[in-house]
Each structure stands twice: as structure tokens, then as C-alpha cells.
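INFO batch 0412 | record 1 of 1 | parsing
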Amino acid sequence: MADGVDAIAARVGRQRVVLALDHTDELALEPDLAQDLLRRCPGLTLLVARHRPPEESIALIHLHPLEVPDERASLDELSQNPSVGLFLDRAGRTDPRFQLTDANARDVAEVCRLVGGLPLAIELAAARLQVVSPAGLVRELRDGGAGRGLDLLTAPIHTIHSGIREALASTCGDLSSRERRLLELLSGFTGSFPFEAAVSLNGRPAFETLDDLERLVDLRLVEPQTSLGGERVFGLLPIVRAYVQEVSILREDDDRQRRTVLADLLAQAASATRSAGSIADVTPAQVMRRDLAHEARRLMDDGASGVASWLVDCAEVLHGFAEGAVISELLDRVIASRDLGGLDQETRARVFLWSSYLLAMSPDGSGLAATVGDRFRAAADLVDADRWPLTSLQTKFFGMMSNVVTGDLPLAMRLATEGAQEAESLPSPVWAARFAVWLAGAAHAVGDVSTAVSIAVGALERGSRLHDSYTLVGSAVVLYTLPHGSLPDDLPLPPLEDALALARARSDVIQEGFVLATLTSVEIDAQNYHGAAGWCAERLAQCTKRGWSLESEISLVQTVLIAAGLGEFRFAARMLGAVRADRERVLRAMAPRHREALDIAQKTVVDRLGAIAFELVGAGQFLSTEEAGQEAMNWLRSQAAQRESKRTSGAPILTPREHDVLRLLAEGDSNKQIATRLGLSVKTVMHHSVSIYRKLAVRGRAEATAYAYRGGLLTDA
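INFO prediction complete | emitting C-alpha cells
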């Protein structure tokens, strides 16, 4: 038999060949010989027919995938894809009425991608349509590491096929001990990983790791993925990861390597989040953040040492995103455990600090004000400002932000003042400037407009000197939200579009959200409701990437104001219902005048609909924040599209003075420069600018300039 294997191997080589062996019941097909043949002929498939089921030891099934669809494929392109075609064929046998539609196409394609185009896995997944939807299949496969997705690995008992579990068992059985160990280690990643991380985890020379990794790729156990920044990036199929984690337990002596990889993952997630400036960059960052949350939960469940320090490191990356809720929950468990007393003083302080901040920023933050306060005080009592000055500053900074949201504005102002003084004494001028921004915001929130103006103007000047974009953006946001007429006429206020560009350049999603909300507010004040709809929709789109929280509810309040301004009273009533339960907390996080504006809008809606109809339509209070946010985003986009169509319906009429202002805006002059050249006050120039933007239905000077040149309103190059 060995001579026959040699002959077959010499004839087949690396060709893609199917070798059918019929009537093999009496054939002594030794497992070692079959494995040797498959190893020597990577393109070979053995099709073995028997009357009796094969012994488990010789169920040699290697995995050869079909082409999977591209994420951007159209419905027509998906219908022509081999993986999707197989799914539809098998689904049709389960439910003859099933067909590919706009509603399910994305989920069907994602199922095919998640199983890597493996035909048997696709068939088993499609057979599950009897009990679960395509979207449910996606969830099961993504949750494979938790055990639920393993149901998809076993063939139904009435079929004659082996399941994916058996295929994986035989394929993994073909690995050397070194390759098997690497696969076990790599199963700890729930998302993609770069080659360097695999080397670090493996603890072996890079050339050996590369050899073993390429072997795993050849066997389709590991998939090469789109590179990130030129790095080679790989990933395990979710069903492969689930299987390996089910049958493998990492040895204790691998703990050091595991922690090295977790540290690498933390750094990668932070880097990916900072650089996620486009939609193409968002998915890798989301995957890595999800990995962090997954690993944090696993470390906690395993009772690993040092988990508290790992959690606060994760909080640095995940706060402001949906995954931050996982860290908040795990920090609760640390605080409630007996292990808390064994932590060093600084780690305990950071645990209390991050727990208070994450709770304050959660959707239930207003109802947790007492717990937030208790944990902040516990953190503050533990922090030694002399030994850990930066931790002390961070404690005051987070405490200030938390108390703005939970409503203790006097405490927020006291912390901002103390933080600014502490930063000055270090000295730390950047920290001092940033505290000043929040001190200005807190003063505005309690109605002390003159103090807010003075501090914010000072912060703007310091931010310019220090070239600190955080301070520049924050002070601009505060100044634009102050009441009209409260700013000096000669104040060189930076355009909000420039502030938005700065926030995006820093990849600061929280400040980006503030600027988008401010842009929306400015357009609402100018009664340019279609323009406001565009900015508000952008902000809600940002929430879909970050998770639904206080930010999205602020945008729902602004949606109410936009809908009421456009006369869409029924939709305004529905959104009012959605924000009713959390109204007070949301308004505390917004400029004070929004309360009055919302009260006026609600009175107008009630007057137009009638009290009974208002209550009936206002059943939006039963919507989740996410459901209301999706409804609002779709509606806002339709309103913004109407603004776009109006742009092409004819050139608007500008006054001669507005034409002069537009020309100088296009030349790049600041408001102060325009005022000097035209002999006007800065305030008058700002009024002309708002009028120009409203007439052109644009969102700022860049759009106004482009529109004006396209429409022939400006002819100079």
C-alpha cells in the first residue's frame, strides 16, 4: 500500500485532483498513509465510498472553501456568488419560499463569510433556517466562542455526511504538535491578529512561526485577511476558533505569552481607534474593541491575577463606546469582590474612578448619581496627589465631567477650579487649559454667562498658543453655544467646520460628537432646519459606530426641534415620547437655552395635534433609544436630501453686502479680517455669514464657496 501512495503522490503532485475510491470496505486504508498522501498532495481530495460508516480515526475530511462575497457586493452580485448560491439552494430545501432580498442579503453574505465559504458549514447553517433567521445565524456564529455557535458544527443525525466537527478533528489531527500548539494559542484572538502578535505569543523564532502559520493557512484553519497599515494580518474562522477552544486548554506555562498578546491587543485596539477616520477603518477598530471586551470577561471569569489593572487599561480605550458597558460591569464585580482589598492603592483608586465615570456616562447615569458620587469620593480619598499627580488630575477631570452629566453642577465647578489650580502649580499648562474649557462649560450650565465668556475666551487664546487642539475645539464649542450678543464683536471665533476637522484629525469621537451637536444647534437657531438635519444625522450615524447612549438622546432632542420647525408635528411627538423618560438628564448635558426651546416646541406640537392625539402619537416613549435613533436618522437624512435637491433648483439671491462677505470668505479671510476690510463689526459679519449659509442651504464656508463657484455667484479664481 505504501508503494501505491508513492505512485499516486508522484502522479498528482500539487494538482487539484479528486480521487474516488469505491467499494473500500475491504480496502486496508491506513490512516497514516492517507494522511501522508494528503500532506504530499495539497490539492488532492479523497472521495471514499463504503457500505459501512468509516471508523472515526479515518474520517479524513479537509476543508476547501468556496469564494465568499465582497462586503460591498450588490444584490445581483451576491446572487451570482458560489457561497451564496449554495446557501440559497440548501435554504430552498428547508423553506421553498426563502429567497434573497434586500432585507436579508447582508446577513446571508455575512454567514458565508463567517464560515469561510466552507460548503458543509454553509449547508448546516442554511438548514438552521427552520428555527432561526439569517440575522440569528450571524449572531450564533459570532458567539461561537461562547459555545452556542458549536451547534452549527454538527451535521443533523439523519444525514449521511460527517459534520464540520469531524472535518476539523481530522484536519487538526494532521498537524504536528508544534502546529497544534500554535493553533491553540491563536484561538485566544476573537478577531484579526498581525504576524508579529503570533510570533510574540508563540515564543519561538519568527521563521518557525511563519512556517507553522503558513501550514495552518494551507489547511484553511487560519485565513489571511486584508492588511492593516502594511502588516500581515490573519484570523481564525469563528467555527474553527470555537472548535479549538472546546477541545484545547492552554497550559499554565503559556500564561506569560498570553499576557504579552493581551498587552499587544490593547495597544493595537488603542491605535486602531485613534486612526479610525474613515468607514473602511471603523470595522477593524470595532473588532479589536470587541476582542478587548471578550478577553476582559474571560480573564475575570478565569479569576486571573492582575485582572483589575487590565480592566482599567481597557477602560482607557473603550470608554465612550458600547464595549465600555462590559468593562463597567466587570469593575462592579471587582468592587464587590474580596479581592479589592488586596490591590495596591493606586489601582484601587483607578478602579473606583473608572467605575464612577463609566456609570455616569451610561444610559442610566442619572439614576445612578448616588453610586457615581460614592465611587468618585472613594477614588479621591485614595489618590495621593504628591505621588501620582497625573492620576490626581485625571480624577478631578473625570469627576468634573461625571457631575456635569449627573447634575451636581456646583461640585463640577469646584473640581474644575481645583484641577485648573493643580495643573498650574505642577506646572501643566495643557491640563490647565483643558480644565478651563470645562470650567467655562460649567459656568454656562448654571447661567453665569459672563464668567463662561471670560474663561472660554481665555482658554481659546491659551489653546492657540499651546497648539492644543482639544482646548481649541472645546472652547469653540462653548463659545458657539453661548447666547447671541454675549460675545465681544472683535472675537476671532474659529469656524465650527475647522473645529470638526481638528476633532476628526485627533480621532476624538467625543469631541467630534460635541461639535456635530453644536453645528446642529447653530443651524436650528438660524432656522436652517434642512441643514440642521444633515449635521444631526451625521451625529446619529456616529452613534451607530459607538453605541447608543446619552449622545444619541441629545440628538433626539435636536430632532424634535428640527421636526417642529419643519411642521412635522406627528414625528416630533413620537420623538418627544422617546426622550420623555430621560429628559431631565439629557437637558443637563445641553446648553441651558435648549430647555426653553424644547418646552416651546412641545407646546407647539400639543397645540397643533391636540392633547389626546399628542399622547397617542407620543407612544414613542416605548421605543428603545436605538430604535428611536434609527428612526430619527432615516427621517433626518430624508430632510437633508431635500436640502440637496433645493441647491440645484436655481441660484438664490444674495444682497450686495452678502456677496462681498461671501467673496472674502472664499478667499480664506477670518471674520475679523472681513470686518476690517468691509468696515463692519465682527458680529455683523457673523450675521451675514449665517444668512448666506441659510440662503445657499450649506453647512459652512467650504460648502458655500464650492456652491458659489459652481453656481456662478463667484467668478474670480
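INFO post-check: The mean pLDDT is 75.
INFO record closed
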